[in-house]
Write a structure and sequence with these properties.
Blueprint lengths: L5 H15 L8 E6 L4 E7 L4 E7 L3 H7 L5 H18 L6 E3 L8 H11 L5
Parallel strand pairs: 1-4
Antiparallel strand pairs: 1-2, 2-3
Amino acid sequence: MGNFSRANSRRRRKQRVRKKVRGTTEMPRLSVFRSSRHIYAQVIDDSSGKTLIEASSLSKELSTQIVGVGEKKKVAALVGANVGKKALDNGIKKVVFDRNGFLYHGRVKALAEGARESGLRF
């Protein structure tokens, strides 16, 4: 029964997702990582192996907006909007969404919707 830990289940989901999702130069991958307190997003070009854009709930430019928000889903939406705005500023309009083994629900969904509302397409 040890094979069904939460971390192991996420790792297996992540492998399943990553089999299909590849980021290219034209359409990079928007990868999300969620810890218990924070959320992180990166736009990655897998062909060169480089991170093009990053945003997180720890980033300095969001620290003034995040203070007093309280709710993690609202913070995730702010991070999504920020990564979307940065991507559009760098000429990236379309991305492939990589939920990184996390379920598309709650904070991961809020981040994705925040990125979509800022104009990013996926």
